[in-house]
């Protein structure tokens, strides 16, 4: 006999799984970076990574993103079990789960590997956090749109708001990341129009900040979906091994005199 972990979610939830509480802490890192002149606003609006590259704000930046990643993992797991209980197909549910977990992993990588110290690793983390984070919410939206009979907690405008935020997030990601790729490609004609040129660098940075805030808010919207939950219990559940001979349930209650 073996054991497996089982998450049991029931009842009515009074607490919100929102990650929006991380937003003020990120702006705190920005404020400290401005005060100690790690970033110079006269040279343009900084990217998020620039604000978390130097101490002491880098310590706050790492702590906030690691905490946010841990909360995101918990939300993704609870959501996975909720969708499973709603009858969502296993492969669809696992695809959604892994995109969310990789987003959380990328968030932690961004916080722990500052751009000035380990730029390639930092960029990999940013890709996972932004691209797969956006994909995670698109998969959630398409699932709720195409699956008939799937519960739709909350008012109908929440669904439209999610669609708007996902669409806006996608547009801003393209506006922020694609121009950098074009700049690295050193295409002379495209350099004239790309957003990441020195003149428009601040606009690209603002897009990055906006995407981060949108992803935090989209995670916060799960408070609506979890409003029917009271709490979740993680416990070990016995699992029988089919390869081993099974002992009858009543054998343990057989008197010793009958066994002799």
TrEMBL record:
InterPro entries: CWH43_N, DRAM/TMEM150_Autophagy_Mod. Keywords: Autophagy, Cell membrane, Cytoplasmic vesicle, Endosome, Glycoprotein, Membrane, Transmembrane, Transmembrane helix. It comes from Myodes glareolus. One of its GO terms (cellular component) is plasma membrane. It is a multi-pass membrane protein. It is found in: Cell membrane; Cytoplasmic vesicle, Autophagosome membrane; Endosome membrane. This is CWH43-like N-terminal domain-containing protein. Pfam families: Frag1 (PF10277).
């Amino acid at each position: 006999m073996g054991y497996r972990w089982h998450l049991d979610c029931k009842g009515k939830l009074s607490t919100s799984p929102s990650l929006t509480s991380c937003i003020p802490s990120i702006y705190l890192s920005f404020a400290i970076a401005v005060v100690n002149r790690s970033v110079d606003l006269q040279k343009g609006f900084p990217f998020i990574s620039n604000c978390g590259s130097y101490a002491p704000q880098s310590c706050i930046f790492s702590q906030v993103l690691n905490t946010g990643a841990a909360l995101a993992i918990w939300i993704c797991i609870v959501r996975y079990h909720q969708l499973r209980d709603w009858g969502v197909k296993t492969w669809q549910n696992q695809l959604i789960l892994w995109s969310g977990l990789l987003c959380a992993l990328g968030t932690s990588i961004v916080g722990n590997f500052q751009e000035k110290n380990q730029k390639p690793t930092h960029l990999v983390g940013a890709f996972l956090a932004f691209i797969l984070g956006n994909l995670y919410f698109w998969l959630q939206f398409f699932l709720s749109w195409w699956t008939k009979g799937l519960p739709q907690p909350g008012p109908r405008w929440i669904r439209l708001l999610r669609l708007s935020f996902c669409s806006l997030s996608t547009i801003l990601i393209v506006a922020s990341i694609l121009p950098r790729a074009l700049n690295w490609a050193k295409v002379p004609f495209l350099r004239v129009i790309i957003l990441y040129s020195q003149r428009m660098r601040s606009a690209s940075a603002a897009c990055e900040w906006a995407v981060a805030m949108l992803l935090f808010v989209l995670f916060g919207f799960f408070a609506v979906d979890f409003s029917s939950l009271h709490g979740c219990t993680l416990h070990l559940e016995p699992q029988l091994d089919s390869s081993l001979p099974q002992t009858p349930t009543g054998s343990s209650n057989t008197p010793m005199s009958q066994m002799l």
